[in-house]
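Retro notes
What went well: the complex prediction finally ran end to end.
Inputs used:
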Amino acid sequence: AQKITQTQPGMFVQEKEAVTLDCTYDTSDQSYGLFWYKQPSSGEMIFLIYQGSYDEQNATEGRYSLNFQKARKSANLVISASQLGDSAMYFCAIAGGFKTIFGAGTRLFVKA
Amino acid sequence: EAQVTQNPRYLITVTGKKLTVTCSQNMNHEYMSWYRQDPGLGLRQIYYSMNVEVTDKGDVPEGYKVSRKEKRNFPLILESPSPNQTSLYFCASSPRDSLDVLTFGAGSRLTVL
């Protein structure tokens, strides 16, 4: 069985600073994928970044990077140079075997 | 425009009155899935489909049914809704399986009285 844990229900960050959102996972699968999705207050789910379990380099997408530490089973999201529009709910997810398990989410507040 | 379309977006119904939430995608995706989102619990998978006529249970399938008669459509059926099915529902699709990026619908907010 797969499991995702996001331990930070809410976080504050100052505009233009970097922030790290924590995500740990547990799985017995050898092949799996780790995703981060953003949900703004409008409610839609937006894909941010993906890391495959066999990828040796950390994934990056613009201001988003995924700090993948396979031995520690962590997949933290780093947002650099936070913007007011980054205020949203962020979900970490693990996928494999046709199933996707989401964490409970972290609500990020960006302060001006 | 490539998209996943869910209807209705908002629905208030009463206990026991059968309802269907439709989901349609125009990207020729093989994989489709339904999730419910509840505060503090994130999104939980209800059912998924790997292709036409191939469906399987997710983590919270009780009280729900699905069908996949056509590749583009994946309706979610609540035969006898109960108040504990009050939730925000998302349909999503991907090209092949869960390891691909999911494209989500806009969500359907369901209230069962």
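What we learned: The CA atoms of residues 13 and 108 of chain B lie 13 Å apart.
What to try next: split runs per interface for comparison.
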